Automatic annotation (TrEMBL):
It comes from Toxoplasma gondii p89. Residues 238-259 are annotated as: Disordered. The keyword Ligase applies. InterPro entries: aa-tRNA-synth_II/BPL/LPL, B3/B4_tRNA-bd, DNA-bd_dom_put_sf, Phe-tRNA-ligase_IIc_bsu, Phe-tRNA_synthase-like_B3/B4, tRNA_synthase_B5-dom. This is Phenylalanine--tRNA ligase, beta subunit protein. GO terms for cellular component: phenylalanine-tRNA ligase complex. One of its GO terms (molecular function) is magnesium ion binding. PROSITE patterns: B5 (PS51483). Keywords: Ligase. It holds the Pfam family B5.
Amino acid sequence: AYLPLIQNSPVYPLILDAKDRILSLPPIINSEFSKVTEDTRDIFIECTAVDITKAQIVLNTLVAMFSEYCKEPYTVEPIRVVYEDPSSAPIDRSVKCQGEASLQNGSASMNGWVFPRVNSRSMPFSLDYVRQLTGIPDLTADACANLLKRMMIHTSIEKATQAGILEASIPITRSDILHERDIVEDVAIAYSFNRLPVTRSYMLTGDALNCLSEKIRNFCTVCGYTEALNFSLSSAAENSSSLGRTPGDGKSSLFNPLE
């Protein structure tokens, strides 16, 4: 399934350790040497992809899940990835991340990019927008923050503006939060959908003649009749000469045919 990704590539990626032992041939297969066993104590997580955004999402998710079982829970040792051509690196050099300072070693640190980049994302959202979509008009900023806390999203009340704009801190495990309405969804989940106010949804009514025709059609179907479409939208020629028939040869014809 992954062979087409590198099938026509002039070069193949190969991951080696310091002793030139093969760890992986991504994205095809890992090596026997690098397989995980019950005696494994150190795990090197590598993620290769053709899309840097997707690669970081996968890497951060794996790191977050594995770190729960570390000797010191929720810790990870970052590494520096060095590109042969720094200008082709897909990461913005100006964006710093946690743990980068510990790997900087003079000018050598400028040759690489630190991974994983576990910075949380800041996302502003409107409290009025949350109230509007959830139907909870009296929802306060504190209550909203407590609901999001249950969804493992920290909300800064101190940075709330007079316009009711709050700021949520999105952890690396919530790559599914892309829009302000995703914040609203988490608020609704924490609040419970069953407790949300029920409002009537008004629907547009159809044309009276169409509604009557639909009722008659359903009634006739129940009675065992089969509906057949006629040629009312066909021209006289299509109903006669085009079918090898003579117009007006005694057969029934349309009262107002299309010409």
